[in-house]
Specification:
alpha+beta; 2 domains; 36% helix; disordered N terminus
């Protein structure tokens, strides 16, 4: 090898060394990135609560809207921030105020400085101080667009001019409804100091639908143009609405029969959703809390609802007008007859696993006393109750259902003559028994 070539070879060695070191560093960096990503993914997966359905949630629950029966749960009693699902309580209070005639849908609300100053980092309808809008328009903005400023405007209107006045009403309402885990600090749910469990959220959602079924008329609105000058309408954050089946961007999320209720997100809560769907005569309510993305909250909800609709059915265990064993009659005072035949007023139905034969306990019967059942007694008159119990083999939960017991016949009041002879007969029967007891 000539000197020049040797010099060139010597000059190449450092270059090769640098290249080798660079390649090694790139490899280490790539490995670190991949490792970090894997570790992050593993950490995210570890944050989810293990469960048999493979739900990627921190807590969840599925219940029957009719009875409140729990069909599935994951850490249901864990207290967490509900984010904008808080607005369900705000919506409930507005509906209560309207029902009690303290406000009306067409009342004009003047937007306060507090409402107009709502932080811009969340959903809003961009209200300005002094703007005037109807209760109904603001309610729809809250229900459909999850507008924080519209929520605060309504809270100020109902709460004596301040959001905190309304928050006190929220907490008082939660207490009266038995939502023991609930603590509200805002009307919107923007602060992570507002907390509630999935179990109490589902319980509340059921109460809301029972007392104010009109809630669904608003929660299922797909879009709403708040002001005539607005370029675009607000779009419902609930992408799972069954009516979205024909909307290209939401088609993959649309769920048959789903018509409510409320989404939510803040950093401390993750992505959340309280949903409800009805198929046939079965309505279910689900809550998922702490999912990882906007889309995930709907995918996990679909898993829960599918589990409910695919695995449970209603079974009637007692038909209407059934005679209850050992409670076939009830004593009547001053009637043509001394007793009246009684039957169940309606059926008793439980939600059970498909194909299962529910084991129902003997009913607990409570009958009104004779002194309260004074003739005449009308057919269909309530004379007592029977309570049936069913124990879910999977959850261990005992579900009770109470049915009224009614008279199946009219019992007229006895004539004076009849009642007199009955009293005489009762007197001598008592006297005879008293004499027999002496011997």
């Amino acid at each position: 090898m000539e000197e020049g070539e040797k010099t060139l070879e010597r000059n190449k060695r450092p270059v090769r060394l640098v290249s080798a070191i660079s390649a090694l560093l790139v490899g280490l960096l790539f490995t670190t990135i991949i490792g970090s990503t894997s570790a992050y993914a593993a950490a995210a997966k570890d944050a989810f609560t293990p469960n048999s359905l493979g739900l990627e949630v921190q807590s969840a629950i599925l219940i029957d809207a009719d009875t409140g029966q729990v069909l599935y749960q994951v850490a249901q009693d864990e207290v967490r921030p509900p984010a904008s699902m808080t607005k369900m309580m705000s919506e409930y209070i507005v509906l209560e105020e309207i029902q009690q005639k303290r406000i009306k849908w067409d009342d004009i609300v003047t937007v306060t400085k507090e409402a107009a100053s709502t932080p811009a980092d969340g959903s809003q309808i961009y209200l300005a101080e002094g703007d005037k809008h109807t209760v109904k328009d603001l309610y729809i903005a809250m229900a459909v667009g999850s507008a924080n400023d519209a929520t605060v405007a309504l809270a100020d209107h109902i709460g004596g001019g301040t959001e905190q006045g309304f928050v006190q009403k929220m907490n008082d309402t939660a207490k009266s409804l038995g939502l023991n885990s609930a603590h509200f600090t805002t009307a919107t749910g923007l602060l992570d100091t507002t907390v509630i469990s999935a179990a109490d959220l589902a319980k509340f959602a059921r109460l809301l639908l029972q007392k104010h079924p009109e809630f669904l008329d608003y929660s299922k609105i797909q879009s709403y143009k708040f002001r005539e000058r607005d370029k675009e309408p607000m779009i419902n954050w609930n992408w799972m609405l069954g009516s979205n089946k024909d909307v290209p961007s939401f088609k993959k999320f649309a769920y048959e029969g789903l018509d409510g209720m409320k989404t939510g997100y803040i950093g401390a809560a993750g992505y959340c959703f309280t949903g409800t769907a009805k198929r046939g005569d079965l309505r279910l309510i689900s809550v998922v809390m702490g999912t990882s993305t906007k889309e995930a909250r709907f995918y996990e909800t679909a898993k829960l609802l599918d589990y409910g609709f695919n695995n449970f059915e209603k079974k009637t265990v007692v038909a209407p007008k059934t005679v209850v064993k050992d409670a076939e009659t009830v004593k009547i005072n001053k009637g043509v007859s001394k007793t009246a035949p009684i039957v169940t007023a309606n059926d008793i139905t439980f939600l059970v696993k498909k194909g299962a034969a529910p084991q129902i306990s003997a009913p607990k019967v409570t009958l009104q006393t004779e002194d309260k059942l004074v003739a005449p007694i009308k057919q269909g008159q309530v004379v007592g109750t029977a309570t049936y119990s069913y124990k879910d083999a999977d959850t261990g939960e005992t579900i009770e259902k109470k049915v009224d017991l009614i008279s199946s016949e009219n019992v007229d009041k006895g004539s004076w003559w009849r009642l007199m002879f009955r009293a005489i007969g009762t007197f001598f029967a008592g006297l005879f028994n008293g004499i027999v007891d002496l011997f």
